[in-house]
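Homework-ish question, so no full write-ups if that breaks the rules, but can someone show me the predicted structure for this set?
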Amino acid sequence: MDTRHRILDEALTLFSERGYANVYVGDIAERVGIKAPSLYKHYKSKRAIFEAIVEEMNKNFAEQAKAMQINGRDAAADSAIYREMSEEHLVGLGRQLFLYYLHDDYNKRFRKMLTIEQFHDKDLAAMYSKLYVDDPLSYQGMLLGMIVSSGMLKTDDVEIMTLHFYAPIYYLLTICDRDPAREPWALETLDRHIRQFDRLYGRER
Amino acid sequence: MDTRHRILDEALTLFSERGYANVYVGDIAERVGIKAPSLYKHYKSKRAIFEAIVEEMNKNFAEQAKAMQINGRDAAADSAIYREMSEEHLVGLGRQLFLYYLHDDYNKRFRKMLTIEQFHDKDLAAMYSKLYVDDPLSYQGMLLGMIVSSGMLKTDDVEIMTLHFYAPIYYLLTICDRDPAREPWALETLDRHIRQFDRLYGRER
DNA sequence: CAGTTAGGCTAATCGAAATTAGCCAGTATC
DNA sequence: GATACTGGCTAATTTCGATTAGCCTAACTG
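A: Not a homework solution, just the prediction itself:
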């Protein structure tokens, strides 16, 4: 990784731990292994580093969103996946979603950074909403909608059903961000959540 | 309200909007209607103001928790309330909980401040978890447990049931904190959530 | 090889924000 | 009525952190 990217990487780590205002350019430089003034050979200002991070992440997420849509379409085409969706599959789906959000390193640090910075800036608030609130909900809604079409799950209101699926995942995620020691408990709770979700909305009802 | 309290009040407002590091003592003073150096007649330092807020809130919440326990005991004694718990009652309960958290002014500002500051400090993270994650869950768990005992709702796993009740409320709350314009939508969604919750766990199933 | 660029460094500079010093008026106390 | 306290002010002072200036070396470029 070249210095330019190392700077973004280390800055993101620090911003996610302490927030923009509590990180000094000297801290970033030190982590990168250079002196503060040298940063300015790469970025015009501290603010510019922050903005580069946001821009970079925006780009990544856009790509990822595109990939997910393709995935979604594939899944729709191959609806056999959903016809054979068992409780175990559903647990797997939720776990995968959760672990991706929890452990993907960029995602995790960026989410923590946005959590801290969201109230300073409308744009960041909107970004947080989009990435961690609205987009996952709409993606999950699409998948669950297909499962409902296949008859594996039943509901009059897919939107609320999706909320019932995703809100606990989001809740557990924020807990783990705050306190990674609770991760094992969160994973176990996640499984119980999804099994109960399946029983509530599933055929046996 | 005396100056000492006015300082805490205005500081809390500012900290909740911008976070500790982005608020200058001059800003606080200006809001209070005095000059920055005069603040030091009341508090030893900027940090001391922050700490006084946290301490004050801790005290308030402790009192409130005690009151809720008393409430809880009363409710347990008078379990008729729960024997006659209709869907409308449940909607009312959820709405009340939600609106209290959303609109109680101290609560709201303090929650936003903790959201911003939680990653700087273990103690603040613990406080956030307690106030907005664990305590509400355990309180709601107690109430739902009583409703289950009364036979109005059925489940094998009250803990997950409580998660299913509270996580969507928490999720909607964080959305409104970020963007108050979504409040009407959140309230409507909240009602639909609780009605569906009632149908899922309720007798009709 | 001379010239140029990239990227590092040390030593300023600049500006902002927290805090301190020291003065003063009003008021409460003895 | 003198004394001392409270809470305000203006004018420093101190500190710290972002940024700039200017120098240097290595590597690339013609």
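Now go work out the reasoning yourself. Hint: The mean pLDDT of chain A is 92.
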